[in-house]
Amino acid sequence: MDLPSFLWLWRIAAWSMGLSVTAYGILALSGGWLLLARRQKRSRPAWLRPLHYTIGGILVTLVLLLLSVGLLGTVGYYGNLGHSVHLPAGLTVVGITLLSAWSATRIGPKRPWARSLHVGSNIALLIGFLAVSLTGWDVVQKYLP
Ligand code: HEM
Ligand code: HEM
């Protein structure tokens, strides 16, 4: 793979990461609202849950896109994987995101553990995003002139 098309891939990575962090912020706000409404036994607007669910689906899509761009770009350029801690960081973030989405589908009155798992995995996801951004920023330096 030649360098220009390789750079294109990292441009996609940077944009998707910005969108992912934005999605995370909206999810934290709307999720916090859901939690407060439930705790204080107040009603919540009808659109709040579908909004949270839809943005959640977008986050999952973005993270999977980032994974494929990272894997395909690296294999296309080097022919193999595992060039830095960015690989385990990336795989961990994908795993936590899927865990969060799966636990969300389990949330219900009969499954209190699903709520805790959902909230817990989302706190872990914040740390994961931080790690993947820092390590990603680090490897990008190799390609900057
Ligand atoms: C990964 C994609 C995500 C999906 C599919 C998703 C979906 C859901 C669903 C279905 C609920 C239950 C809503 C209800 O009570 O009716 C929920 C609750 C919640 N979500 Fe998410 N969510 C996602 C990501 C996130 C993220 C990233 C955060 C925080 C940064 C978050 C924070 C919350 C909170 C605080 C609650 C309320 C829990 C409670 O009531 O105790 N979610 N989510
Ligand atoms: C959820 C977010 C992300 C995921 C899941 C992800 C995933 C991956 C994976 C699995 C690889 C292959 C690594 C290897 O085999 O060594 C990779 C490579 C790479 N990623 Fe990411 N990535 C993410 C975010 C980012 C961000 C934000 C940047 C830039 C700021 C970035 C820049 C790169 C670069 C430059 C490489 C090439 C690896 C190298 O040259 O060592 N990634 N990514």
Topology:
Blueprint: H1 3-39, H2 48-78, H3 86-106, H4 112-140
Helix pairs in contact: 1-2, 1-4, 2-3, 3-4
The protein binds protoporphyrin IX containing FE (2 copies).
List keywords for this structure.
binds protoporphyrin IX containing FE, elongated, mainly alpha, 0% strand
Summarize the structure.
This protein has 145 residues and is mainly alpha-helical. 81% of the residues lie in helices and 0% in strands.
State mean pLDDT (0 to 100 scale). Answer: 92
How would you classify the helix and strand content by structural class? mainly alpha
- Tell me, briefly, the overall form: elongated
The percent range for helix content is over 70%
List how many beta strands DSSP finds.
0
Give, in order, the helices and strands: HHHH
**Which radius of gyration do the C-alpha atoms yield?**
17 Å
The total of helices stands at 4
Bound chemical compounds: protoporphyrin IX containing FE
Distance between the termini: 18 Å
Sheet-strand content, in percent, reads under 5%
> Which regions have little confidence, pLDDT < 50, spanning 5+ residues?
none
Notes on the structure:
By secondary structure, the protein is mainly α. The chain has one domain. 81% of the residues lie in helices and 0% in strands. The chain is built from four helices and no strands. Helix 1 runs antiparallel to helix 2 and helix 2 packs antiparallel against helix 3. The longest helix is centred in the first third of the chain and has 37 residues. The chain is elongated, with a radius of gyration of 17 Å. The model has no long low-confidence stretch (mean pLDDT 92). Bound molecules: protoporphyrin IX containing FE (2 copies). The site of one protoporphyrin IX containing FE has 26 residues, from helix 1, helix 2, helix 3 and helix 4.
